[in-house]
C-alpha cells in the first residue's frame, strides 16, 4: 500500500519553497503552500528592523498570523513534512 505524503511549507522569500519542491519531487509527495491571510510586504520582511512584522512574529512565539486557505485535507495523509524559515522549534 502506498503512503500518502504531503509537503506543506511557508516561504516568504522563496528559499523554503525551493527546498519543499525538491523534497516533494523526491518523495513523490503532494505539495501545499501555506499562505498568510495578509501577505507580507518587503517592509514586513525587513529583519534588521526590530519593529517589522517578521521581527515581531519571530520574537513572540505566541503570535501566529492567520492562514489564508485552510482547505487542504491534511487528515488524508499518512506523512506530512512541514517546512518554514528559521525553524527554532518543532510543532
Summarize the structure.
The chain has 91 residues and is an alpha/beta fold.
Question: What does this protein look like?
Answer:
22% of the residues lie in helices and 15% in strands. It is α/β, with parallel strands linked by helices. Strands 2-1-3 form a three-stranded parallel sheet, covered by helices on one side. α1 (15-27) links the parallel β1 (5-9) and β2. The protein starts with a strand and ends in an 8-residue tail after the last strand.
Record the SSE blueprint.
Elements: E1 5-9, H1 15-27, E2 30-33, H2 53-59, E3 79-83
Parallel strand pairs: 1-2, 1-3
Radius of gyration in whole Å, from Cα? 14 Å
Percent in helix: 10-25%
Order of helices and strands: EHEHE
Q: Tell me, what's the shape? A: elongated
Q: Give the spatial strand order of the biggest sheet.
A: 2-1-3
Please give the alpha-carbon distance between the first and last residues: 28 Å
Largest sheet: 3 strands, parallel
How much β-strand is present in the residues? Answer: 15-25%
The chain-level structural class is: alpha/beta
Counting DSSP H or I runs of 4 or more residues, the number of helices is 2
Q: Compute the number of strand runs.
A: 3
Mean pLDDT: 87
Low-pLDDT ranges: 87-91
Could you list some keywords that capture this structure?
91 residues, alpha/beta, three-stranded parallel beta sheet, 22% helix, disordered C terminus
